[in-house]
Amino acid sequence: QPDHPDVDWLPHTLNTSTFSPKDHMASRSHWGIGERDVLIGCVMANQARKSWPLVFESLAKMHGTTAGKPKIWCHTDTIAPIPGRGYWNLLSLAYEYGLGDHVILDTANLSDREMAQRYSACDATVLISGAEGFGYPIVESIACGVPCVTGSYGAGGELASHAVPPVGFRIETQH
User: The pTM is what?
Assistant: First the structure.
């Protein structure tokens, strides 16, 4: 708790000198993503409350462009459950939704500068979760000049460039 009489909470901070727009095409080049390709980003932990199946299903339902089916960069802590960590098997989800080589699975421990480069490579990002308090990936993406789509039901919906009202809820977790 901050030592100031007017502040009873610690505000979230964002380093906008690091999280700022980077060269779009230079950022895409390390993945071999072309100028006409559509790249969606998703930065979420591999937890039950993170709706990875909905992310993959949404991408699978997106119409292709002249460059083909959109691709997705998934930055997470683990691709599949391991003892003590992870809930979804992202490789299995990619297979089940027929996404194959349209998915970039990334578990690297990246610096903020490297994250800003990757956000800047995207055309949009998504954060589809059971609930978010603040949702750093939302504001990091927007700070890099990339719109973010999330649900309108949590604090993230107030921050995102595109907040989608829910059509239903599912509670399966203690979060």
Answer: 0.89
